[in-house]
Amino acid sequence: MQPDPLILLPAIRHEVSRQDFFGQALKDGLSPILLLRASEGLAQLVLRQGELPAILRELRPAQRALLERAVALLEQSKLAHPSQILGAIQHPSPAGSPGEEDVAAYEILLEAIAASIGVLSLERQRRPSIAGELNAICHAASRIEARMRAAYKAALARVKATLDATSDQSGEETIEPTEARLTAALRNRFPEHPTIEARDLRRISGVNAQEIYFFELANHPTSSGPMVLRRGSDYNLTGGSIADEFELLSYLHSQGVRVPRVLMAERDLAWFGTEFSVMERMRGAAQTPKSLGESGPAVALDVAKTLAQFHRVEASKLTGRHGQGRSSLTELLRTRIDRFYSRWQAQRSESSLAVEAGYDWLRANIGTVQGDVSLVHGDCNFRNILIDGNRVSALLDWELAHAGHPAEDLAYVRPDIEQILPWSEFVAAYEAAGGPHVSEHALRYFAVWANVWRTSMAAWLSAAYSRGEHQNFIFATVAFHEYYTTLDDLCAFMDTQAYEVDR
User: Fold this and answer.
1) Mean pLDDT score, 390-404
2) CA–CA dist 67, 54 (Å, integer)
3) What's the rounded Cα separation, in Å, for the pair 425 and 431?
4) Rounded-to-integer distance, Cα 473 and Cα 13, Å
5) What does the pLDDT look like over 210-256, one tens digit per residue?
């Protein structure tokens, strides 16, 4: 799953160029210089891992032949061998991974030759007889280094050419949001408010499936104030539609569920190259369980109440994947598992026996999940919960929402909750607020499901990056890390006897 380094460079430069890391637009001041130097350094890192080992491997025979000449001259002149020579003779091919071994071997031979020349040069005045041979050794050594530098510069030029040719591809495929274009889109949607205006638009960095922008909405009679623009990214990880969330969030908001009120959703790609939505910006911020401090237990109890209220909403009122239709709970679960598994087979970057076993376990144990169908968030943990003081202000990121079983949300948020509150107290608060009873079998089932779907999605995202299907370097590297983290958890479960309990 190691990404192609030639994809790495344009992806990083694309991401960096869209961020105002230095307090001003990248086109001004020192920022372009820093970006240029960063690109240069990254290109050389890619070259060191890519073509450099092959270049050095080709030079090794000439280096060894030159070292033998230098050693012979040292022995002829009865001069002591420098310590570097002994290492070069005893360890001609250092242990290491491919590439690293070639670099290390070149450097060891380089040090040995340089040390030999240094000793012989100091003796030149006292031993004129060695001058001719020493000159020949110095000339040969310089030619070897000149060959290396010429090959290195040519390879570096190729890397830079690839970088320059591909760095702006993503930018050409989408239209960057600006205040003027967003204002035009808003006025097009709300012609009755011709003075409506978007101000102070700024992109928010983070690990998000969609691109997030904050802005201030002015001159709207009922919705002026802080707003959020959510735009589809260049790789649709979840397969969902931002525009489709309009119906869901509008319905949930009408039912009193703590979600942002959506002002508009747009399917017309002419505005920004992707679908987008505009919604109110809620107070608060996402936090980790540890960062909550003394407010942690109160927040956990409010999460329980929020989820209970959400799980009571009737899924039958919605259509598409958010609605139940005529499917039973078992049919909904099987369809979802089969859909994820088909995508796993088609888009994974490497095979995994643990993931295969995980999908098999989920199919075999569907019968342990009983109860009524409800709406499920699908990605419910503290990363997607806004917290304001001691309470939940909103649930965010509904790309994976669907009709299913409430235990899925509870199992997924459980690791966060148990860091700040006993699970029994959370469940008691959840049920007291009207949430349905869920069994331990169902919670365990969806704990396995959480690892399977997170591992699958992380594999898809990082594999798509390595194939050049998107350039979101930050998201891809997080996915690459998360793939192995969740895979470790899945392997641990599959290695226990608990795997057999429900069969």
Assistant:
1) 92
2) 20
3) 10
4) 9
5) 889 999 999 998 889 999 999 887 677 777 778 788 888 999 999 99
- Strands 210-218, 225-232: parallel, antiparallel or unpaired by DSSP? antiparallel
Structural tokens at position 336? 């979802």
Q: Which residues of 8-18 are buried (b: 16+ CB within 10 A; e: fewer)?
A: bbbbbbbbbbe
325: left (phi over 0), alpha (psi -120 to 50) or beta: left
Looking at the DSSP bridge assignments, the partners of residue 215 are: 227
Contact of 71 with 81, CB cutoff 8 Å: yes
Torsion of CA 134, 135, 141, 144, to 10 degrees: -140
pTM (global) more than 0.85: no
Which residues does 291 contact at the CB level (< 8 Å), separation at least 6?
none
- Beta-sheet pairing, 225-232 with 276-280: antiparallel
Token pair of 62, please? 């000439």
Whole-number pLDDT of residue 32: 57
Q: Please state the three-class secondary structure of 240-299 as a single string.
A: CCCCCHHHHHHHHHHCCCCCCCEEEEECCCCCCCCCEEEEECCCCECCCHHHHHHHHHHH
Number of C-beta neighbours around residue 486 at 10 A: 22
Amino acid at 390: N
Residues 365 and 114: their CA atoms lie apart, in Å, by: 68
**CA-CA distance, 230 to 232, in Å (whole number)?**
7
Amino acid at 346: A
Distance, CA of 176 to CA of 461 (rounded, Å): 22
Of 131, 122, 170, 128, nearest in space to 16 by CA: 170
Helix (H) or strand (E) holding 331: helix 329-347
Q: Cβ neighbours of residue 228 under 8 Å, at least 6 residues apart? A: 212, 213, 214, 215, 260, 278, 279, 280, 281
- Measured in degrees and rounded to the nearest 5, phi and psi for residue 154 equal -65, -40
